[in-house]
Amino acid sequence: MKITKPLVGAAVIGVGAVLAFAVPAGAAVSAQSPPSASVRLGAKATLDANGAVVFAPVTIACRTGSSAFLTVRVTENVGGQIASGETSVFGAECTGGKVKLTAAVTPTQRAFRKGVAFGQAYLSVCDPFSCQLLVDQHNVDIVKK
Question: 107: closest CA among 67, 78, 136?
C-alpha cells in the first residue's frame, strides 16, 4: 500500500491539533492542584479557666510522610495592657488530608478576656528534600465557653 503525501500531511496536522489542545489542558490541571501544605487558624477561640487559657482551632494539611511543627500565638489588649501567649505542637500529624487541631494557648503575664485578639498560626513542614513555612494571621474573637 502506497501512502500519499496528502495523507501524511493530514496525519501530522491531526497529531499537532491533538497536542495543541492536550498540553494546555494538562497545564491547567497542574495549576489547580492543591498546595503540598496549608494552615488555617479559626476565627474564634474559646476562653476558659478564668482567662488562663484560650483554645484556638487550627486546621492543617500536609503530605503523608512529611513532618510538621505548629506554633500558635494569641495577643490581646486587655485594659491597655497586653495579654499574650504561645504554644507549640510537635509532630503534628501529616495524613495527606485536613487535620483539625485545638491549640491551648496560655498567657504569660495577664489573663485573656472575651474580646478581639490577634492570632498567628505558623506551620513548618519538612519532607526529605525541603522545608516550608506557612503562616495564617488575622483577628480572632475570644468567646466564653
Answer: 78
